[in-house]
Amino acid sequence: MTESISAKGDIGNSYNRRVTDINICLLKDLQDWICICKLERNEERCKTCKSLSQKGKIIPTFDSYRKIIHIDYKDYPEMTHVVLIITAAPTQVEVMGDSYNKDYRHLSYKLPSVPDIVMTYPESVTKGVSVLTLYNDSLFYNLQLKGLDSVLRAYTAQLVPKHCTSKKDLHEGNMMSLHVPWSQEDVYSFSRVNEIGNLSIKLQSLASPMEDTNESVELRIYIDPTCSYQLKIIAAPTESLGQFIRFYGGLFPSFMLAILLMGLVFQLHQIRRERKCADIIEAISSFGAPYKILPVVVIFRFILNNESFEALITSFGLPQEDSRELTKSGLYSAALPLMLYIISLGVVNVHCYLLIMALHIFSKVAAVLFGWIPSLLFTFFEKIKVLLLTLAILTSCILCGSLGIIISYICFVIQLARLCHLTRVSNNGNIATKFNFGVTILLIFLWVVVLSFPASISWAKNLRYTFILLDDSNKLMSVLSVLSISCLIVLDNPISARESYLYLAPGVYVVNVLLLLYGMVSVYRIIYAVTSVLLGLAVTRIIYYLKNGQHIDIEQEKSD
């Protein structure tokens, strides 16, 4: 039933008991606008009316101007009339009511799976599948979408008008709504009459936590009853990629750092065996294969998730392993670590290549700009470097931990640029080892810079109030990181402490295993892993220096 009403009063709508549901759309915002009553025999009007206004809802977007209510007749077996209350207004109010049988309007559709999409490519992506033809004299359809059980599955619902008999300005338009039972939000799409409507079909939150229910995602369609439509479901690969980045992007940092640490372990073994230290790309290709770390992680994950060891693990104060949290969220699968590791392997290789290329370009430009400076002045620059590192330690202790990290990182980049220049003008293997090993440390330390950078933004925003960042939760790790990297910059010879690498390399490997067990969900645990590795490297060099009282200086090698 579709009527335009502008008069004040109540409007009664009797209905047939053969229908099981009614849908009413009202383009007017009233506090009490609909009720249901029982008309007694020999009476013209209902004396009492039970308000149903609380069950109605206003539908976004603002372009739709719709207030909608769904009434199931079975819930009110004694009632005989639905009453709409519309106040007098200078403009007309559009009221649309649709009484229907659920068997013909509440339908279900199984979404095409990934193999189905691949088999029907490119039609599945370009044209889609015709799901349903919506005929005239219909106001509402409810389509249950079966198979939308993963955040990686994404489609586009396209509502194509075929034939309309009404004037363009008689009705506002069409609306599609994606309702997810376990989500707090619905997604809406509004289109004008004779316009194609599109709605993205994807999970805005994680998969259903209700394992014992049969509730499915619903596509609710509100259409112009004077038009016929065709509904299409089109696969959306770009939306699926966006879903993957949205829900799994936070898991990549731990795997990317794990690959760098595997390269560091290989370099430590090379230096201990008195071989030339390979660059990070070669180290990753030699020792960064998934089978060299993931099987160990799987074994420890099985032990940590075993109920027999759960009490023992809890007594040691260890948190729950990350796969449990991901399993509860519906994101974890047995193949997930391998998939993330392989993707991260490609990303890390590209990142390493770009960083090395940037260091070469920076060193060449610096050599052209500062090549005229006498070599004696570089001794003065070494003193400035020590002053900057001291400033970094003081600022991380007093002002902001992240600020000291940034200062020490800049000092490290400058030193690596000089080493890069020396590798081009000299065939000294020790300098090449220093540079290759330093690039690995720089890549690892970069994660501390990135993860602690938000603290420096907070410090900068609060400068008008105070120079000290209060409640800096990352201060301890920042101070330890700055102290460690300062030692690695000053005591810049990784060859000197090669004997201790026999024990340090397995220690880094253990940290790597713990990182993949506990660093996926909370990326800020990465800082603890990086700090422990840097601290281990710094301690080995300090111990060697205290025992021998010397270390190889860059300037000494340059003069030689």
From TrEMBL:
GO biological process: endoplasmic reticulum to Golgi vesicle-mediated transport; GPI anchor metabolic process
Protein name: GPI inositol-deacylase transmembrane domain-containing protein
Signal sequence bounds: none
One GO cellular component, as annotated: endoplasmic reticulum
Chain ranges of the GPI inositol-deacylase transmembrane domain: 251-540
InterPro entries named among the record's database cross-references: PGAP1/BST1, PGAP1_TMD
Keyword Transmembrane helix on entry: yes
Keyword terms of this UniProt record: Membrane, Transmembrane, Transmembrane helix
Single GO term (MF): phosphatidylinositol deacylase activity
Domain of life: Eukaryota
Transmembrane regions: 247-268, 280-304, 331-354, 361-381, 387-414, 435-456, 476-494, 501-520, 526-546
